[in-house]
Amino acid sequence: MSQILSDIFLFNPEKPLIFTRLFFWGFYMVVLLIYSGIYRQRAARNAFLFAASLFFYYKTSGLFFIILVFSTFSDYYLGNLIHRAKKMGWKKFGVIMSVFINLFMLSYFKYAYLLVDTLNTLFNIDMEVVNHLALWSNRIAGSHFEVSAILLPVGISFYTFQTISYTVDIYRGKVDPVKHILDFGFYVSFFPQLVAGPIVRASEFIPQLYKRYSLSMQEFGFALFLILKGLFKKMFIGDYIALNFVDRVFANPTGFSGFENLTALFGYSLQVYVDFSGYTDIAIGVALLLGFRLPKNFNSPYKATSVGNFWKRWHISLSTWLKDYLYIPLGGNRKGRIMTDVNLMITMLLGGLWHGASWQFVIWGGLNGVGLVVYKQWKRVSPYEKSKHWAVRFWKIANTFVFITFTRIWFRSESMEKANQLIHQVLHEFNVRIIPEVVWSYRLVFGVMTLGYFTHWVPERWKLDLLNAFIRTPLWAKILITILMVFVIYQSWSADLQPFIYFQF
Amino acid sequence: MKPLRIFIFFLAVLLLLLLLSLLFPKQGIGVGGDLRLSFMSFSDLIREDSSATAADIQHLLATSSVSDDPESEPGKELFPGIGEAVEASELQVIPANADSLIQEVHRIQFAEEKVSLLYPFFRNLDQIASGHKRPTRILHFGDSQIENDRMTALIRYRIQRNFGGTGTGLVQAIPLYSGSLAYSQEEEGRWFRYTYFGKRDSTIMHKSYGIMGAFASVPTPEDERWPMLYYKFNTSRRSGQVRQVRVFLHSYVDGASLAFRANDDFSDTLRGLPDGFSVAEFRHFEELRELRINFNLPEGGRIYGISFESEGGVQVDNIAMRGGSGLIFTSMSRGTQEAMLDNLSPALILLQYGGNVVPYMSSSYYRRAFKRQLRFFKEVCPGVPVIVIGPSDMAIREEGQFVTYPGLEGIRNALRDAALESGFGFWDLYEAMGGHNSMASFVQANPPLANPDYIHFSNLGVNLVAEMFYNALMLEYKEFISQNTSR
């Protein structure tokens, strides 16, 4: 019994509370049950969802929820300070403090190792990471935190950006401060989007805190469709190709032929999309069932016709955040062509670094920046820029997709060495004769990949027709469809591992 | 739609899923071919965590000192200074509590009357440690688990560091991998690699593949340009420090020549090589930074291997056979293998196989077939001890759980029995890494000790188990020294 209680209530790093675990859905049902008793009382509703979100975060990240609480307090009071201050100087002080505190926390937890490794390499020294926060806590409170390692709190990249947008929007006069700290805590920590976004703007979300609960039958159908679609994308497609193919190749590129490396790269391009967009689909659906609307985060990104267009379709909440809070404050496109390109590059390099603390992510961001800059110049001279011909459109989509996939080499590889190995294998170990054998041996994996890309590239109208058909089905049919989807996903989750196959290349 | 209705909706879904889990046949429903529909049982619904049955490997991590790079200096070595420990006084540097070490080390198993199996090899080590120039050689054969010098690299580095010797030993002229840390390689000419293991090229009618089970076909010279292999050595690594090179080749006619050019300033051409098998040797007075080997084989030929060595010390060869099960030695041409082994004169042979037969072969057949291979080594290398290293744990997925392959322990037993019945040694890698379901723990460790195929180790993981084997070997050596010094 104590084991069961401990499993339910205590943090276990090996069992985080994520959407793909059954335990999450048990948690969600308990939240729904309590919520159905209090959803009409606005204050109680927000306070309850705040508490549920903190529990969710504790189950996902352990005591790091204290950092989330700290972030909540500091930005709530700084927001009030910015709003009430009469003098511009105090307003500026408030917003600078907020940005500093958030970026300091993000840097401390996310970039300490990158900084130390880089300094060690540059100056041939032997510094080690010391967790001063843990050291301080151990001295003051007698705790026993590990001081030789800094762990990354889950979701810190998302909620720090979210709270920065809150104080900056108050400073810009776009939004009024939240009336109560519990409401603000709810905004910062709302569990569906806490771990992997979308990054919700204060101006979009805070007004919803003061609205009554409403959810039409159509919206219920839409939310359920998103949840099922997200689970299918993440678990049926993403997890299957990652476990049976992609992860194996990226773990040991030299053990695989050039063709396997290349197809694993395209497999990863699909996997990262279905993983991330699938998770966001579930987040949007789960939030909507509680009556809260989160912004759309992906819009068929591999249908993009240029790198610029891609970034309007991929992780939209981040790219618009970077545009509004980094690119435009840097000067945007207001300071001439060269400075526009410089600002774009800075934004993309820092955007790359936001995705992960390694130089591979900076390279990835840099390549995307170069893609944006080159395309800006190209479209000035291209005779086909305004063409509506299907072949031109196909060429643009294919070009963009291949370029974005190429940049994924650095996004996915654990080290520069692995990235170089992958490139080497593709360039020097590409034996065309083994392709039929590889395709046949990995037929299930390639079949799932084809299904993933097919469902991505089918016309939007088909997808809308399917969504509308689902929404129109009666409740009992929705129950059966949900069970069918769980059954189908289970087949992928429980499928035998793809046997390891040796190819001489 | 009110939240309570949504709750009831989810409740209905959950209850129907429970009902389905109770009614669905446990063995699943076949839908043609290997495909089978299945659904979780009620107990699986509750026990959904895939790591629940994984083996505990914490003790392995706690005692290891390895890193990703096999040549990195270890923080601690279980038997520090062992190579210098021939003098009794220096034995003191070995930690005193032998019992605790024996518990830490997963020991090599021997047939009862054969505990002295390794003594000839240990005497060779002793001689080297006492300053003899005569080199000693360990041939490490294996399957893909040792590809790209994995496992061998750490064993080689530790032994060479303690007993002397540099260089990688045998490599293929056209290697499967191009990721050697010891050297980089370029070729000129149309070279091809052929292997006896894996998928064989049906146009090759002979079985003369040499002891590596592979050869590179030497192109015929074109426009007076001799085909060339170029090596640039990474001399900062022990395995990249080379002074002596041996090329094992087969020319189709008399009068072949090999030209060696070292460090761009010294050349030596070996002319008049005979028709058939020969070994071309090249020695240099200083460490090689670069080496060009030009091949003038008028009608072409084969390269069975190239060995990069030091003059003395220990050489440890990595001979990986992707997809191999260790059963090809008796079916390849014996003459070339014998000729190579004569020249190499190994003092110890390691055979690390088993993983590739786990799903496909009966253990009794494998035991008999492997014994034939061991007999082959007994005949071609009389008196040379062999240690068979068993397969590592491998996992399959059963109802979402990663568990040990059903037949793995049978194959491990087959190899052990074959080794012990042949009078050789056996090291149980499967038990050393934690036994049942340990591969799942290796994959799920942070950082990972195995790749997500649940078969192959990561660099860190392979160094961890290689260190365990090295420690097992050195424990035997330590006991051999203790016996000798106490007499």
3D structure, described in words:
The complex is a heterodimer of chains A (505) and B (487). Helices cover 73% and strands 0% of the residues of chain A. The longest helix of chain A has 36 residues, at 88-123. Chain A contains 22 helices and no strands. Chain A is mostly helical and 505 residues long. Chain A has helices at residues 2-9, 22-38, 42-61, 65-84, 88-123, 132-141, 156-171, 181-189, 191-194, 202-209, 217-251, 258-289, 307-311, 316-330, 336-355, 359-381, 390-412, 416-428, 435-441, 443-457, 460-472, 475-493. The termini of chain A are far apart. Chain B is an alpha+beta fold. Chain B is 30% helix and 23% strand. Chain B has helices at 3-23, 42-46, 58-63, 98-104, 119-129, 152-163, 334-344, 363-380, 408-421, 429-432, 438-444, 459-486, and strands at residues 29-30, 36-37, 109-110, 136-142, 169-171, 183-188, 192-195, 214-218, 228-233, 244-251, 256-262, 266-273, 276-283, 290-296, 301-309, 314-320, 348-352, 386-389, 395-398, 401-404, 425-427. In chain B, the strands form five sheets. Chain B has a six-stranded mixed beta sheet, with helices on both faces. In chain B, strands 5, 7, 8, 10, 13 and 15 form a six-stranded antiparallel beta sheet that branches. In chain B, α6 (152-163) runs parallel beside α12 and α8 (363-380) runs parallel beside α9 (408-421). The interface between A and B is large, with 53 and 50 residues.
Structural class label of chain B: alpha+beta
Global morphology of chain A: globular
Identify the biggest protein-protein contact and residues per side. A-B, 53 and 50 residues
Structural class of chain A: mainly alpha
Query: Would you identify the regions of chain A where 5 or more consecutive residues have pLDDT less than 50?
Result: none
Question: Any idea of the CATH topology of the largest domain in chain B?
Answer: Rossmann fold
Overall pLDDT confidence of chain A:
86
**β-sheet strand percentage of chain B:** 15-25%
Question: How many domains of chain B?
Answer: 2
Q: Calculate the terminal CA-CA distance of chain A, rounded to whole Å.
A: 55 Å
Oligomeric state, counting identical vs distinct chains: heterodimer
Counting H and I runs of at least 4 residues, what is the number of helices of chain B? Answer: 12
Number of strands of chain A: 0
Rg of chain A computed from alpha carbons, rounded to a whole number of angstroms: 24 Å
E-strand count of chain B: 21
Name of the CATH homologous superfamily of the largest domain in chain B: SGNH hydrolase
Tally of contiguous helical segments of chain A: 22
Note the beta-strand portion of chain A: under 5%
What sort of overall outline of chain B do the alpha carbons produce when their principal axes are compared? globular
Fraction of residues in H or I helices of chain B: 25-40%
